Amino acid sequence: MxxxxxxxxxxxxxxxxxxxxxxxxxxxxxxFDAKARSIKKAVLGKAGGVIGSTDSKLVMVEAxxxxxxxxxxxDRVGLVGHNGAGKSTLxxxxxxIYEPTRGSCRVQGRVAPVFDLGVGMDPExxxxxxxxxxxxxxxxxxxxxxxKIDEIAEFTELxxxxxxxxxxxxxxxxxxxxxxxxxxxxxEILILxxxxxxxxxxxxxxxxxxxxxLVARSGILVFASHSNEFLAQLCDRALxxxxxxxxxxxxxxxxxxxxxxxxxxxxxxxxxxxxEAEDKAEGSDKATSNND
Length: 292
Prior knowledge:
By secondary structure, the chain is an alpha/beta fold. The chain has 9 helices and 11 strands.
């Protein structure tokens, strides 16, 4: 096995071959400002990563430590943990943005990393143009995005505003455009870092339905979120990341309960029960409609 490497395949692969593997993967960040060493030790020690040093006395932050993770087609994995625990670092490792400084990582399949809904959007051009650019940023071709643009425009409910420069939009309007594009792509591996904010409740419900459809189309989902409701809706497995290590791996309810306590686990259980009831009711409605 190759050490200190990340092996990626950009080609579209068979569903059976879409997978993610890490073996003892570590990601270290050096701190070069020796004068601020004591301050950084205090701050970073509380924030998450483990502080170490090399033989040359260079201070290192161990953002990820000895991560062994194996995902295959159909896995829907949520990441929980406090800010600075290493969730976003793990996402960026899987997306190929970071390489392991020790250990190795192999990703087979086309990856769509969604870390910031606003990345790839230009305030000086129209909403329509931003839809095209943002989609291409996420790996779609211009031809593919032109086929999707009318459907995305309808989803945003922005009408004539889409012909205006993005700088004239409110934050909620920008999120509508970004969500419309993100939920229209067809990834094999979806890497999602929660970044959904100022939109009204009714539109968020609509967006969640599209997110669920996006997850259903993707081969593998890895999703970092502080929303247990989102995790319960989109994932069936969770990893608790703590100080750069996988502290626990299991079902959503089990892991959330260990991380946040019984009340959080009960909320997850309630969300799952409500989803199952809605699915059952929808199935009954379809059966009745077919009989008619």
